[in-house]
Amino acid sequence: MTQNPRHLRRNPTQSRAEATLRAIREACLKILDEEGHQRLTTNRIAEVAGISIGSLYQYYADKRAIAADICNELLLAELNEVDRLDEQAISMVRNSLETTMKFFVEEYVARHRRLYLKLKGFYLEMHWHYDFETYVLKTRPGKLTTVEWLPRALKRYREILGVHDLVLASTMIVNVIEGTIHATLDRSPELILKQEFADELLAIVLSYLKYASKSNASPGSS
């Protein structure tokens, strides 16, 4: 499972500090784009940003912390993740179990696709260390976790589900999706860019949700 993301060592309190943070993030992206992730070091980032290495370490513990900050900004700005993966958003697509889970799976996959395309090879090094949901919960303490609201969405389809413990089922679904995505990023990263990947992942989730209804059926039932 993903580890908790590293956070800023200190928060910017003035425009100059915010400008420094922006310069650090922009330098990181510039190096990744023009030089490759092998050249991405804190010393090189500081050099390209035009600051001292001491100034960089005032805010970030290491290059992964910088990348995590970039990931957070990208997802908040481009995907509006904070408000999309909640119960209100899911309620908009509750036409069927299939459409609900399709929305859910594709949002997860899209998140990692964007980060991989943005950070390229460096994301392949640090993806296990990045956890966007932990970041959201820290910044918005009242927000429900996925495992808290997903059982409520599944409850609508209880009659066609083969699983009975919806909290456990939700935990298993999240683990399967995250584990599959991370393993794919480790072994065949280009695969997550294909629609077939999301389709097959959805099929796995739906099969799990329905399998017990068949296994529990009586021998003479159809």
TrEMBL record:
Annotation: DNA-binding region: 41-60
Domain HTH tetR-type: 18-78
Keyword DNA-binding: yes
Keywords: DNA-binding
Pfam families: TetR_N
MF terms in GO: DNA-binding transcription factor activity; transcription cis-regulatory region binding
DNA-binding as UniProt keyword: yes
Coiled coil (residue ranges): none
PANTHER family reported in the protein's UniProt record: HTH-TYPE TRANSCRIPTIONAL REGULATOR PKSA (PTHR30055:SF226), HTH-TYPE TRANSCRIPTIONAL REGULATOR RUTR (PTHR30055)
Protein name: Transcriptional regulator, TetR family
Organism field: Pseudomonas linyingensis
